[in-house]
Amino acid sequence: MAELIINGNTTVASGSYSPVSVTGGATISEASGQTVTFDSVTESPGITGVNFDASGGSLLTLDGVIATAPTALNIGDGGTIELGSNISGHSGVIAFSPGDTNSVLIFDPGVANSSLDPITLFASGDTIDVSAPISSVNYNPSHDQLTVNLADGSAEILNVVIAQNQSFSFAGNDIMATCFAAGSRIDTSTGPVAVEDLKQGDTVLLATGMTRPVKWIGWRHLEVRRHIDPDSVRPIRIKAHAVAEGAPRHDLLVSPDHAIFIDGKLIPARLLRNGTTIVEAHEVETVTYFHVELDAHDVLLAEGLATESYLDTGNRASFQNAGLPLLMHADFDGPGGQARREAASCVPLVCDAARVEPIWRSIAQRAEARGLIAASVETTDDPELCLVAGGKRIAPLSRIDGRYTFMLPATTADVRLSSRTAKPSVLRPWIEDRRSLGVMVRQVMVKSGQHHETIAMDDPRLTDGWWAAEGDSVAIWRWTAGDAVLPIKPGQAVIEVLIGDTQRYPIESADHAVSSLRDCA
Fold first, then answer.
1. Is the pLDDT of residue 329 over 50?
2. What DSSP letter does each residue of 189-239 carry, written as one string?
3. 465 three-class SS
4. C-alpha dihedral over 467, 472, 476, 479, to 10 degrees?
5. CA distances from 175 to 104, 116, 178, 464, 506 (A)
6. Max intra-chain CA distance, the chain
């Protein structure tokens, strides 16, 4: 390693330097795209401050820094600073540059927390790498403390000063800022503006190239897991360039029902999940949603992606600043929202499989063409249908053309029809049906001695574990929820269950995944 003496502002070329002596107050930076390592850095007495800057895609690794004066670490414009385990005495701020993205701070294993305080201006597009697998993150805004719980059971506490309403997500070793407010930029007549900075009267650009004024901006902060139906508010992450080049420009978080404008139609984001470029953000524990209302419903541009503006479907009470009694569990669709949206939407809002599936496939094919292939979901068409009585599982005696025959011993316990379950919307994301379905039952026959009873699928006794009856001009059927009570009198009997169309069932839980394009062929 080469020795380096710094006295004043210095730009350093790629290389490893040791020892490094700072003899005068300075700003030390790297040429764009350079990789620089400093070991054994010392500062001469009397220095009032030193700045280390990383930007323009450069990587600066600091190890063995002995700081006697305030030492500021500035990261911006795609720069990376890595702090080695031997760093000590850091007494200044670690600052991300506002407005820049793709900036990274890496902590090598063993870095003392006292060397890391505080971290400021951490925003959407930035990353903190803690060099160990993360199990969860929790932020205490009262003390600016981010608790990082690691997979090995230990925890790190970082002092992180953030913008209002920001939240965090994590993946592997990385912590990301997922602030829907500070990170999502809306295209306006004066350029992209962070959604939280928009004001009433500002003009936003539309997908048509025209403009409209902002009428109102609603916001709601949510803890996803505390919601009565977490899936209904869990963010959908639309990754950069998922729909087209530059659409969106950067990763974008939207609520599941927020509609994306594609091929002249508005489609809820949840129907476009493909496991790679459009995914449920299960790593996001808290999120702040902002909805921009214009003087009329229209299609605006968020990070360059055409999305709908806010449409009042009776859901205004879901927002914290609406001046109404706050709805405890946010419902962004609103009562009767689907019908209202279809009636009042500026362009057709479509949710039917026939029109959504071709668009889903087009986006999934675009992802695969970029080498992004979702993991396949192992499935089976065997529902593993059985009876359960008194806690005992009763397997079928026979199974022929969808007709299952069971011998039920004398019992006074409830008799339940049990099976695997699957959500159609998990394995086929473009399908609106989010129910957890067991089997489609067409008929149940009970034979006990000379007594024969046929239980029709519109029988009012079918309640516990049964979905509502469905039918056509020919027949009536009913789906179970995987554990349905049969209205059978006590005693020994032969039970025949006739099931209709089958579905695919995941071998293991697939709640957090969707089928790959190949699975959906």
1. yes
2. TTEEEEGGG--TT-EEEBTTS-EEEEEEEEEEEEEGGGSSSGGGTSPEEE-
3. coil
4. -30
5. 10, 15, 9, 43, 30
6. 104
Closest listed residue to residue 304, CA positions, set 259, 249, 361, 234: 249
Q: What is the mean pLDDT of residues 67-88?
A: 77
pTM over 0.85: no
Q: What is the dihedral of CA 170, 171, 173, 176, to 10 degrees?
A: -40
- In eight-state DSSP terms, residue 348 is -
More confident residue, 77 or 302: 302
Which of 48-52, 105-109, 159-163, 318-322 shows the lowest per-residue confidence on average (mean pLDDT)?
A: 159-163
User: What is the C-alpha separation between 206 and 489, in angstroms, rounded?
Assistant: 64
Per-position DSSP letters for 246-282, written without gaps between them? TBSSS-EEE-TTPEEEETTEEEEGGGG--SSSEEE-T
Which residue, among 397, 216, 414, 391, has the nearest Cα to 310 in the 3D structure?
A: 216
Q: Is the pLDDT of residue 409 over 50?
A: yes
**Which helix H or strand E contains 35, and what residues bound it?**
strand 35-39
- The tally of CA atoms less than 13 A away on the side-chain side of residue 488 is 32
| Average of per-residue pLDDT across 52-79 | 78
pLDDT of residue 375 exceeding 90, the answer is no
What backbone phi and psi angles, to 5 degrees, belong to 222? -130, 145
Alpha-carbon distance of 204 to 212, in angstroms, equals 6
Q: How far is CA 93 from CA 39, 70, 74, 96, in A?
A: 20, 8, 8, 10
Give the CA distances from residue 10 to residues 22, 31, 38, 53, 429, in Å, rounded to whole numbers and listed in that order.
Answer: 11, 10, 14, 10, 54
Percentages helix, strand, coil for the chain (3-state, rounded to 5) are 10, 40, 50
Q: Is 353 helix (H, G, I), strand (E, B) or coil?
A: helix
